[in-house]
Amino acid sequence: MTLETRCCIAGGGPAGMMLGVLLARAGVPVVVLEKHEDFLRDFRGDTVHPSTLEVIHELGVLQEFLKRPHSELRELRGMIGNEPVTIADFSHLPVKCPFIAMVPQWDFLNFLVDQGRRYPTFQLVMRAEVFDLIERDGRITGVRAQTPDGPIDVHADLVIGADGRGSIVRSLARLPIEDIGAPIDVLWMRLSKRATDKGASLGNIRNGHVFVMLDRGDYWQCAYVIPKDGYEALRRIGLEAFRAEIVGVVPFLADRVAEITSWDHVRLLTVRIDRLKQWHRPGLLCIGDAAHAMSPVGGVGINLAIQDAVAAANILYRPLRQGAPSAAYLKAVQRRRELPTRITQRMQVVVQNRVIFRTLTGGAPTSLPWPARLLRDYPILRRIPARLVGMGFRPEHVRSPELGPT
């Protein structure tokens, strides 16, 4: 089977789906290829930051989105030893929604699919996994994807690689990668939530361990940070010792850590930070994690990917309505988004190397570090991390119009 379109997007994650919606809304024919049959995969980022909520507001569908089940995180709180500290206060952000919305990512993606299907120029193909690029005279002109009904060729004026940090598109395109590295990995798991858990902290540092808890309504999605490649060593000490370590960080979880009955209940996330030196080739552009894999520090990866999608739509919708965008337009997307990416990654490196890794290798701090003391004693300073986490550097705004099909 063969499809013809203006833009083929490989990857139906947040970046790819948002770009598909924005381009289809602007009258550009788009085909989005998603390799899975649905979006129901656990342990994905579920934070929709204020910058992304602002984009949804600019699309005119914010109230429809907020009708979906969600919780609102208006502060980021941590526990260092026995002392609580408020790290960020989003209430002062100059946005429509000064909070982080906790929404399961499958709900967020299904919402974007619903928006895309409002436009006749939007086409989503599920269970379509890209395995090759189509190239002609040095230019990428499409992709080949495997589906349950056999391979399909999608010919397009532009191919977008939005297929995550393990991107097959960027691998096939042989784009050079700068590996920045990360000294940590993360173990994801879930634990039940009780009515008595009110006031639980998002981040917990105690006894040389770091444990993060995300409120998912009736359960906690938990992240236990370990040194890089330390998973096998942890398994060797045994599940009972692992459960005891969790209780040592968050004592009130003692009545439920037994829910982790095997290592099958623990998912390893291998953390890496990298970025492409060049995000594009003639006929091809990478965005989101395919262009820059982010650390989970700050939970900003999804929202940075959304910002890439908005910038790409703003720059590319006009040339795509006419045909294949020139290299100058693809360079403009990278130029627009590369500096925010570099700054964000640099901040993540500082936090993971100087705070998290030092904690894992040197034991818990005996007192609040001086930055935490400043945040405790001078609440106005909490606006700074709120801005960095909630909005990021150079937040994007929707400039592409809502038009009919070409």
Entry keywords:
2 domains; alpha+beta; eight-stranded mixed β-sheet; 11 helices; FAD/NAD(P)-binding domain; 406 residues; Alpha-Beta Plaits; single chain
Protein architecture, described:
By secondary structure, the protein is α+β, with helices and mostly antiparallel strands. It has two domains: 236 residues, FAD/NAD(P)-binding domain; 86 residues, Alpha-Beta Plaits (2-Layer Sandwich). It has eleven helices and 21 strands. Strands 1, 2, 8, 9, 10, 11, 19 and 20 form an eight-stranded mixed β-sheet that branches. It is globular and about 60 Å long. The protein starts with a strand and ends in a 16-residue tail after the last helix. The model has no long low-confidence stretch (mean pLDDT 92).
Helices, strands, pairings?
Blueprint lengths: L1 E9 L3 H12 L4 E5 L12 E2 L1 H9 L3 H5 L4 E3 L1 E6 L2 E7 L10 E3 L2 H12 L5 E5 L2 E8 L2 E9 L2 E12 L6 H5 L4 E3 L4 E9 L10 E4 L2 E7 L3 E9 L3 H7 L1 H11 L17 E3 L4 E3 L3 E2 L2 E3 L5 E2 L7 H22 L4 H36 L7 H8 L5 H8 L16
Parallel strand pairs: 1-2, 1-11, 2-8, 5-14, 11-20
Antiparallel strand pairs: 3-7, 4-7, 5-6, 9-10, 10-11, 12-18, 13-16, 13-17, 14-15, 15-16, 18-21, 19-20
Largest sheet descriptor: 8 strands, mixed
Q: Give helix % range.
A: 25-40%
CATH architecture group name of the largest domain: 3-Layer(bba) Sandwich
* C-alpha-based Rg, rounded: 22 Å
Under CATH, the topology of the largest domain is which? FAD/NAD(P)-binding domain
Report the principal-axis shape: globular
Counting structural domains, the number is 2
Quick one: how many beta strands?
21
Instruction: Say which CATH homologous superfamily of the largest domain is assigned.
Output: FAD/NAD(P)-binding domain
| Mean pLDDT over the residues | 92
- Strand proportion, as a percent range, falls in 25-35%
CATH class category label of the largest domain: Alpha Beta
Give me the secondary-structure category: alpha+beta
Gap from first CA to last CA: 23 Å
Uncertain segments: none
In DSSP terms, counting alpha (H) and pi (I) runs of 4 or more, how many helices? 11
